[in-house]
Amino acid sequence: MLLNRAQTALLGVSLSAATLALWAASAGAQSAEPGKAHPALWPQAKSQGLIDAKTESRITTLLKRMSLEEKVGQMIQADTASIKPEDLRRYPLGSILAGGSSPPINAPDRSAAGPWIKTAQAFNAIAMEKRPGHEPIPIMFGIDAVHGNNNVVGATLFPHNSALGAAHDPDLIRRIGEATARETAAAGMDWAFAPTLAVPQNDRWGRTYEGYSEDPALVRAYSAKMIEGLQGAPGKGKLQNGYVSASAKHFLGDGGTLNGGDQGNTDIPESELIAIHSVGYPPAIKAGTRTIMASFNSWQGVKMHGNKSLLTDVLKQRMGFDGFIIGDWNGHAQVPGCTATDCPQSFNAGLDMAMAPDSWKGLFETTVKQVRDGVIPMTRVDDAVRRILRVKFKSGLFDPARPYEARTDVIGSPAHRAIAREAVRKSLVLLKNDGVLPVKASARIMVAGSAADDISQQSGGWSLSWQGDGNTNADFPNAQSIYAGIAEAMKAGGGSATLSVDGSFTQKPDLAIVVFGEKPYAEGLGDLRSLEFEVGDKQSLALLKKLKSAGIPVVSVFLSGRPLWVNPELNQSDAFVAAWLPGSEGGGIADVLIGDAKGKPRADFTGRLSYSWPKTAAQFTLNKGQAGYDPLFPLNHGLSYAAPGNVGQLSEVAGIDATPANKSRYFADGRVHAPFSLALGAGITQRPVDSASRQEGAIQLSWNAGAMAKASIDGEGVDLRFESSAEMMLKMTYRVDTPAGGSIKLGMGQGMVNADEIFKAGAGWRTVRIPLKCFAERGADMAHLQPVWTLSSTGPLTISFSEIELATQAPGGVCPSQP
């Protein structure tokens, strides 16, 4: 459906009658050729600060000296996990990145600035060598600095974008960008893959927290400010004065995919693509963004990495973008007819640099051949390389001075942490308060919940690892947990705060603050099929009920990357705060929740929802201005101490049954989780036992002597292809009660591994992680996995399990030998 004038007004878009007529006229053309844009319909812009005669002359001179191999090399980016500095002597690539869980050279992925600086220096040393037949050109080092320089231990982690949207403060965004740039440059990197300008329209999307808002007007207001913060004023900011190159992403429509599926199809009219999803790009271009990242998604069935009408005709020509277009992680491989190592279609469509993390060598070789054969025109290569060199000159890379590499004092500096703490305060949204907030600092309170003292959970995805998991508080040396911030405020006011994760107590507290919410996740793995929080496993709700039944007033601090259906939790709370994913500065929550000794506020709630809050778990697309808009809390809603409001008893009917969507949690909390079931072969018995933390929270399986017997967790075939390619693991927490009297095999589907070493004798509870790829390599059909788990033994064996589930990539994974 085409947007009308009233709808576009709601989106903050002003359109002439002529433009609306063009949209209407283009509707027939769109149906005739899906995925082809009409540039005349799109807004115009022009890059600022990128082109000047002196720089262009230097580029022309340099291009004449470069070999074909050197030119093609500039167009390819490799990941630190798959390339060594010495490889650049044969393959003169133009850029290196470190993906979300990729390590620096000879150091763990969770490293402080030192190893990262040495890594950047090692690659640049080879790239800049003076040797025969080689033109020294500095590399660009890219990093996903999406909420601070989140790959570096000790860096300041700002709230994720969904939280920043709630702050409604464009200048705050600029200051966050500037601090992020300083900390990125100080770690040896010169390019931040940020900001995300997606306008999420379906909250099931696992990247919703990377978008500032469902409201295009807010995204537009933030766009140029973040570019300015990261890069400085157009044409002025350089690496030498603490600025890095930005990458506006993902072009285009990633927030509008069908059902919120990551990397899916955005099947909407061109008018909607323009009015909703493109609005952040003209301001970013005018602010001088040096790079723009192509999106994984398709538009009307055409993959963005191969869409010439959008990448070239719209972005480069109509919008006047003079920087370069970078691909996403092997995104070119998704273009029909392409593979990760062979994709002339993407370069010809307008991609200037392919992100080929582990496919760089093959892509380099085939691309050189394709240019020689005329499949990729030399004019297209020269255009791409000119754009890349333009950015390198303008960002200061050809100047060897690196003063910020010695400024590791700026990483996690007090000044940057103060900005992050301010951002936390401004992003908190008060959804309910029945007179219990602010908390008197002279009171005796309890802080409970699984996330209360967990910096990893409060930081979310893209925090030291891609999915944000596998971290401990020790991995965040400059950070403060929410509990620590509350305890500090209470002590300063003469009161006390006691940490009790499970809500147990010997002396009844005056009040309980319960911190709970989503576990960390990133793209793909964060996609949902329902907006219900803790589907089928209401641990947080049980904790709230436990405290309420004890007569303790409850303040809920809810951590999430998006709005979720939490009506039952709201009903059990005397106050409820949407705290989003606040990052490293847990003290910012205490600044607003904890008053002075008499209960007078020290700071008020100013955050307002940047996403509409659902009334049911089935309200996946809930965006202001849409037909049937009926939220529990509308866009821009938020209470305060100065302007309170009442929330009555809410319906606890979710409106959708999401249990069949579970494909990662098989056994936990003493039970098999739906839709799976446990099947035991002859000679195997089961009984409930206590886990390390919960009464009857585990199951004990016993094999009697005799022939091979198998226990399995069954269900309909599960598609784990994405999970396998995303390096996910089978995680088991277990205790060997009676060592094996025979051989043991562990399997997923038809893929089997030898488990004798895993389940050897030993005391206490242990955890093992086995990459899904181990089972795939041994014959498991990851597209239709059935059963999801099996364990066989030829002799006596007794093992207790408290967890059998999928886990994201984390240190310590093992791949056992074949059986």
Description:
With 819 residues, this protein is α/β, with parallel strands linked by helices. It has 22 helices and 29 strands. Strands 18, 19, 21, 22, 24, 27 and 29 form a seven-stranded antiparallel β-sheet that branches. Strands 12-17-16-15-13-14 form a six-stranded mixed β-sheet, with helices on both faces. Strand 2, helix 5 and strand 3 form a beta-alpha-beta unit. It starts with a helix and ends in a 12-residue tail after the last strand.
Strand content: 15-25%
Helix percent reads 25-40%
Give the beta-strand count.
29
The largest pleated sheet is described as: 7 strands, antiparallel
Overall outline: globular
Output the number of helix runs: 22
Low-confidence stretches: 4-19
Radius of gyration, in Å, reads: 27 Å
First-residue to last-residue Cα separation: 57 Å
Secondary-structure-derived class: alpha/beta
Average pLDDT rating: 93
